[in-house]
């Protein structure tokens, strides 16, 4: 057990101190910072768009209305009444005195119409804002003219009341479903990333030890199975550390920024204490899923002789996670499809699909128990297989990357009588 | 109290790597494993270490099977370098030492001793990949002996080293043997084995060809080498009975003869024919034995 922790600690700290870990963590933190400050950044870059618009009001009525509407809305856009001819106005825009020229008039039906002159033909923020405001003025005019009062108008625009009631009392409520969907999304994403990043890391680590032949010394001091699992858990600890750093930083960012975005996110994904059971399931399935994929990754890593070959050999594993990911995406829309039910029992997909079903549907306990049992049995099977192949593969060198090698590695540790 | 290899056979599919090996390696001292490429030396070592399971037979150290509970008693230097290329020498030795059950402070003390002894203390904070091949081998050696094992297995410890480094490592190996370590080592360089080992074993295609005490093996080999230098024709010796091999050298000839008494016949036949400068009778070299024992099976 002591050696287990030595290997675990070694794996953890060497990786923790590595440049790639520091860079990737720093990069994610930077992205988060950018994301949290998105308002400021957008504002900074949009600052150039600040506009002074010349307005020629041929109606002699609408300018004050429009000015007021815009003043309420956006302080970056200022209107200025322009009393000279249209030609003069265009020249002023071309000379850069104004950012645009707006000519408002009435059409045949006495509704406002406008022509907007700008130096380029690109659809600009200014154009959209003004267009929207004019549209509202038009609506107001039209309703006023046809004698419809404000209340009737809002009644027309109000969405129809439509409520769904599930007759089955155990069925999930809308809120629960939303919450489940949110957690499923996050879980899918995190598991997907974890398998791809940390699975790759394990395979690379094993392949490095094998190609440098230090493995021969390692497994003469500690048993392959100790070594294998210490490595897997060590990388898992690393992953948890990285995620913790990122989460803590994210929470701190959102707290200090007091961003509406954070509140919106929390509401959207329904994080609340009521979902505790679901969180626990998420944790269980995450751990099991990680163990399964990590074990296979370690096995694949021990089959290659050169670190460069790791990518190639772990490809099928990544495809498997991707398939699980896509099935899960489909499952979010139709969680009760037969296809989803079946795939939720296939161990490679169980962590994602069964979890999705638990979140979205009412699943009897025995189904959950059965799928977890199958999953654990598969993990044990692969762990056993991996340890065997690991031990054999370590002593096998050469360009190995086929099923035949897997068999050979397996046989190398077999006692023949 | 010894390392016993009891009727051990290892098959890889149809290929027999080690065939019914029966050896008793006495405690303390040096034991040499000789054999050409593919003779089964490395496979035997891997079985001793428990990296491979024998197909049949048993290996015991002091009457007990070697398992992971005993790994602190055993040191291993593999044939190929086995170190983390990107890890600093110090971190490397600390990690490997801890895996052999040592405390960090003890490792550091031992490491200092060995790095000083091998005249490379300034490499402690260098990455292994920055070191020359010879210095890497020294680090590899330190990693095998840092925990003062009682059984030390060295697979081709001197290959790829310059003569100065070979001497340095040899001295270290001999010192360890004097301190009571049981050392099993393999080499295809006869001189090293001849110089250092009391007991040897020659393997060919997985089978033992010769084994036992080196001095006794030489004695029982019977054949001797005879070197003669002088101002006389030596041609007539070629056809003399009892002369097995004849090789002309500048100012003389080298012979292999069936036994000691042949030398006296030769001396008699040469007397009076000219000036005899040197006439020496030699023990057979291990090389002669090896070529004879391993070579004759090829015929």
Structural description of this entry:
The complex is a heterodimer of chains A (417) and B (299). Helix content of chain A is 69%, strand content 6%. Chain A is mainly alpha-helical and 417 residues long. Chain A has 2 domains: 52-157, Periplasmic binding protein-like II (D-Maltodextrin-Binding Protein, domain 2, 3-Layer(aba) Sandwich); 172-412, no CATH class. Chain A has a 4-stranded mixed beta sheet with strand order 2-1-3-4, with helices on both faces. In chain A, α15 packs antiparallel against α16. Chain B folds into 2 domains: 2-218, Rossmann fold, CATH 3.40.50.300; 223-283, Alpha-Beta Plaits (2-Layer Sandwich). Chain B contains 9 helices and 14 strands. Chain B has 299 residues and is α/β, with parallel strands linked by helices. The longest helix of chain B is centred in the middle third of the chain and has 16 residues, at 163-178. In chain B, the strands form 3 sheets. A 6-stranded mixed beta sheet of chain B has the order 6-7-8-3-9-10, with helices on both faces. Chain B has helices spanning 41-49, 89-99, 104-117, 133-145, 163-178, 190-196, 214-221, 260-270, 286-295; strands at residues 2-12, 15-26, 29-35, 56-61, 64-65, 74-77, 151-155, 182-187, 199-204, 207-213, 224-231, 243-249, 252-257, 275-282. In chain B, α2 (89-99) packs across α3 (104-117). The A-B interface holds A 2-3, 6-7, 10, 14, 208-209, 212-223, 226, 391, 395, 411-413, 415-417 and B 11-13, 46, 49-53, 55-56, 68, 71, 74, 76, 78, 80-85, 87, 91, 95-96, 98-101, 143.
């Amino acid at each position: 057990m002591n050696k287990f922790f030595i290997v675990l600690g070694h794996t953890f700290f060497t990786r923790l101190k590595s440049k790639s870990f520091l860079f990737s963590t720093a990069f994610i933190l930077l992205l988060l910072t950018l994301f949290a400050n998105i308002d400021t950044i957008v504002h900074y870059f949009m600052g150039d768009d600040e506009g002074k618009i010349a307005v020629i009001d041929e109606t002699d009525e609408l300018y004050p209305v429009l000015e007021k509407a815009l003043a309420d809305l956006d302080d970056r856009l200022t209107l200025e009444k322009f009393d000279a001819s249209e030609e003069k106005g265009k020249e002023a825009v071309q000379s850069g005195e104004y950012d645009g020229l707006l000519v408002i008039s009435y059409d045949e039906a006495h509704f406002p119409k406008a022509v907007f002159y700008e130096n380029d033909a690109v659809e600009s923020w200014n154009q959209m804002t003004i267009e929207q405001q004019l549209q509202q003025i038009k609506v107001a005019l039209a309703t006023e003219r046809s004698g419809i009062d404000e209340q009737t108008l809002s009644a027309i625009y109000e969405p129809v009341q439509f409520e769904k009631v599930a007759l089955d009392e155990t069925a999930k409520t809308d809120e629960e479903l939303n919450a489940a969907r949110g957690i499923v999304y996050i879980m899918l994403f995190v598991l997907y990333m974890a398998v791809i990043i940390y699975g790759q890391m394990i395979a690379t680590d094993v392949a490095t030890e094998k190609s440098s032949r230090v493995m021969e010394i390692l497994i003469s001091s500690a048993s392959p199975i100790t070594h294998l699992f210490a490595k897997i858990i060590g990388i898992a600890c690393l992953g948890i550390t990285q995620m913790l750093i990122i989460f803590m930083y994210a929470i701190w960012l959102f707290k200090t920024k007091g961003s509406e975005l954070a509140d919106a996110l929390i509401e959207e994904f329904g994080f609340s204490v009521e979902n505790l059971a679901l969180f626990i399931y998420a944790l269980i399935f995450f751990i099991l899923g990680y163990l399964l994929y990590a074990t296979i990754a370690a096995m694949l890593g021990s089959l290659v002789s050169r670190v460069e070959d790791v990518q190639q050999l772990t490809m099928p594993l990544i495809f498997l996670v991707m398939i699980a990911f896509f099935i899960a995406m489909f499952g979010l829309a139709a969680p009760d499809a037969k296809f989803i039910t079946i795939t939720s029992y296939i161990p490679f997909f169980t962590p994602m699909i069964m979890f999705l079903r638990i979140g979205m549907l009412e699943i009897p306990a025995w189904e959950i128990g059965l799928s977890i049992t199958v999953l654990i049995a598969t993990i044990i099977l692969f762990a056993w297989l991996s340890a065997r192949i690991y031990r054999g593969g370590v002593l096998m060198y050469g360009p190995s990357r086929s099923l035949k090698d897997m068999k050979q590695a397996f046989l190398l540790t077999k006692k023949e009588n | 109290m010894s390392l016993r290899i009891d009727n051990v056979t290892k098959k890889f599919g149809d290929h027999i790597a080690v065939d019914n090996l029966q050896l008793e390696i006495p405690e303390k001292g040096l034991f040499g494993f000789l054999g050409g490429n593919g003779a089964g030396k490395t496979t035997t070592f891997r079985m001793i270490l428990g990296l491979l399971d024998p197909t049949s037979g048993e290996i015991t150290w002091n009457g007990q099977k070697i398992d992971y509970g005993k790994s602190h008693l055993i040191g291993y230097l593999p044939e190929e370098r086995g170190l983390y290329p990107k890890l600093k020498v110090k971190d490397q030795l600390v990690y490997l030492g801890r895996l052999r059950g040592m405390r960090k402070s003890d490792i550091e003390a031992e490491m200092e001793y060995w790095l000083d002894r091998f005249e490379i203390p300034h490499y402690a904070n260098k990455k292994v990949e920055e070191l020359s091949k010879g210095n890497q081998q020294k680090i590899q050696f330190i990693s095998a002996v840092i925990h003062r094992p009682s059984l030390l297995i060295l697979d081709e410890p001197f290959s790829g080293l310059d003569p100065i480094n070979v001497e340095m490592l040899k001295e270290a190996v001999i010192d360890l043997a004097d301190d009571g370590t049981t050392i099993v080592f393999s080499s295809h360089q006869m001189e090293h084995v001849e110089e250092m080992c009391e007991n040897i074993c020659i393997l060919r295609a997985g089978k033992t060809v010769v084994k036992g005490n080196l001095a006794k093996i030489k004695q029982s080999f019977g054949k001797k080498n005879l070197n003669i230098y002088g101002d006389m024709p030596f041609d007539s010796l070629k056809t003399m009975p009892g002369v097995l091999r004849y090789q002309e050298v500048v100012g003389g000839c080298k012979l292999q003869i069936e036994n000691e008494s042949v030398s006296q016949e030769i001396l008699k036949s040469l007397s009076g024919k000219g000036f005899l400068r040197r006439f020496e009778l030699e023990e057979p070299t291990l090389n002669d034995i090896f070529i004879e024992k391993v070579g004759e099976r090829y015929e």
